Amino acid sequence: MIDNMLFLAKAEDASQAMDWQNIDLALLGEKLQDYFDGMVEEQSMRLEMALHGELRADPQLLQRALANLIANALRYGDQNSTIRVFNQDHSLTVENHGPALSEEQQARIFDRFWRADSSRHQGSSGLGLSIVRSIMRLHQGSCEMHSEQGVNRFTLRFPY
């Protein structure tokens, strides 16, 4: 939790040095797939990577943002469901099946320490999605969440 708080404090500094690179999204997807394979199996879930093309971003920050979204989908998604990670134009999306969130919950989902269901936090600090938002701000992009009919979709939008 201390590491997450330090990261958030550093991310608020606009002078944060960014390591801009062209990232091969398919390779990033393979790396994330390998990392999460065991956890996905433990949760009786599937992880489907459909990333292609390139994106200009800071590779470590982008990997952290996607990893946080995938970990969140594993924590709150339905067992025996599939987590899908895909890209389109200048956006990346992580989608999972799970309990729908109200509009009020969706509006607060990226707030620090906030959890939609504190009884199900399973050791979560409530900082993961706040970190995602900070990473997207550093990229001059945005993040959004939509929840409807049992599908929760987190989208990272890049401005270029």
From TrEMBL:
<keyword id="KW-0614">Plasmid</keyword>
<dbReference type="GO" id="GO:0016036">
    <property type="term" value="P:cellular response to phosphate starvation"/>
</dbReference>
<dbReference type="InterPro" id="IPR004358">
    <property type="entry name" value="Sig_transdc_His_kin-like_C"/>
</dbReference>
<dbReference type="InterPro" id="IPR003594">
    <property type="entry name" value="HATPase_dom"/>
</dbReference>
<dbReference type="Pfam" id="PF02518">
    <property type="entry name" value="HATPase_c"/>
</dbReference>
<dbReference type="InterPro" id="IPR005467">
    <property type="entry name" value="His_kinase_dom"/>
</dbReference>
<dbReference type="GO" id="GO:0000155">
    <property type="term" value="F:phosphorelay sensor kinase activity"/>
</dbReference>
<keyword id="KW-0597">Phosphoprotein</keyword>
<dbReference type="GO" id="GO:0005886">
    <property type="term" value="C:plasma membrane"/>
</dbReference>
<keyword id="KW-0808">Transferase</keyword>
<keyword id="KW-0547">Nucleotide-binding</keyword>
<dbReference type="GO" id="GO:0004721">
    <property type="term" value="F:phosphoprotein phosphatase activity"/>
</dbReference>
<keyword id="KW-0902">Two-component regulatory system</keyword>
<feature type="domain" description="Histidine kinase">
    <location>
        <begin position="1"/>
        <end position="160"/>
    </location>
</feature>
<protein>
    <recommendedName>
        <fullName>histidine kinase</fullName>
        <ecNumber>2.7.13.3</ecNumber>
    </recommendedName>
</protein>
<dbReference type="GO" id="GO:0005524">
    <property type="term" value="F:ATP binding"/>
</dbReference>
<keyword id="KW-0418">Kinase</keyword>
<keyword id="KW-0067">ATP-binding</keyword>
<dbReference type="InterPro" id="IPR036890">
    <property type="entry name" value="HATPase_C_sf"/>
</dbReference>
<dbReference type="InterPro" id="IPR050351">
    <property type="entry name" value="BphY/WalK/GraS-like"/>
</dbReference>
